[in-house]
Amino acid sequence: MTTPPPIPERIGKYTISGVLGRGSMGTVYKGFDPHIHRAVAIKTIHRELLGDSTATDSMAARFRNEAKAVGRIAHPGVVAIYDFGEDGDVTFIAMEFVDGRTLDEILAVPQMLSEANVLAVMDQLLEALAVAHSQGVWHRDIKPANLIVTKAGQVKLTDFGIARLEDANLTQVSSMIGTPAYMAPEQFTGKGIDHRADIFACGVLLYRMLTGRRAFTGATQEVMYKILNDEPPPPSVVTQGLRPVAFDAVVARAIAKNPANRYPDALAMRTALQALSRTPASATAKATVILPIPRDGEQPVTTSAVSPSVASPKEAPPPRDPALSSGASGSSLGATGWDPTELARIERALATHVGPMARVMVREAARTHADPASLASAVGRHIADETKRHQFAEQVRGGSQVTPVGSHSASSASGATPIPAAVASAAPVGDPLTDDFKTRVAQIVTRKMGPIARVMVRRAADASGGSRARFVQTVLEAIPEADRWAVQGEINKLG
Questions:
Q1: Catalytic site residue from 33, 123, 141, 198
Q2: 141 is catalytic
Q3: What is the 3-state secondary structure (H, E, C) of 291-315?
């Protein structure tokens, strides 16, 4: 077993406090810039792994050129690069330190993401890639591990530094850092590689988020053969209809073997997904539900949409996203308890700040918020500028003349916390809350939230009225959305 190299006290002007990750080509450290007083991530090269001096010099030059290229991107969806330097035998890049979790960690939880979350990730990723490609930079290693999701739900693309390698001496280096399951056919053959390799990887990533499994599996040689010759089953088939058929065409075009048959650029794929997000649910799919994600080789669980009042947890939890699925009532009004006119007004207000994804964001938040003020607060986090965020909140509150209807309004009138159908599906409505269940949930939440979890769980239990479903719903509402996916997945596994 190889002993990892010791952690240096300093690299360049940066003090080093720990290791964020290690790879075949180098190590990423957490550092601190004493001049600007900010945390940074320091990415280094293991020069001794590059072989002869020619490869080392070429790699260092490429590292420098990529640092300059990524430094020009200046997009919030790309991890920023602050500095390039050399310190003795170490070549390094200082970049933005992002506090969040990788999409790979999020997808490790056995749970199917909602269409709203899938679309939000893809929309942010494709927007960032469009800017990168416009600067002549393509990533070539798009995968869940290179996407960081912050606590505010922002997606940031990282690891551009040594991904774009073109000359013959560095072809092997490129293959070492690439991930075979996400590589385009031309990356294996070395022919005609351009920005459309990233489009292919985005299609594979979309497939993974939709189905919970990789499009191409096996050992490296087997994966390569499948990517060059085989077509994976469509997402709607893998999930037995739980995903809209409309996604199949988007995935198929993105992962076409011939680059000419793929989307011509990231914006084109983004536009296709935005159009899908606006498609009426009845035209695209049956209900989408929260299910354990089937592992490779396992059959997905089959279910259908039924009324939440009669559904068992293993048969049919209610739909998660009324914007993209049809529930028992067949309408967004019945699924969320909101008047569509009110939601449309809020969507228009948000769209002036965040663009077309406003619809997805508002419909997703409407599942767990019953009044305009709380809904405005939930979706307002997507507005980076604090002044504009406050203006948006005032606009929503000031213009609200329609009260949410249905079960939500009844709960609000009594002062009780409403139970969103999608969250309540973590447990049957009739199941009683037990001390053992509370203890196990507290353990899960503590791992994410720390000591405050005890207070959250106690308050949720007090507000539950003895209902296990209401207890789970209240706990999840108190957890930041970025962590809510993982916590809900763990709670669902409790049975």
A1: 141
A2: yes
A3: CCCCCCCCCCCCCCCCCCCCCCCCC
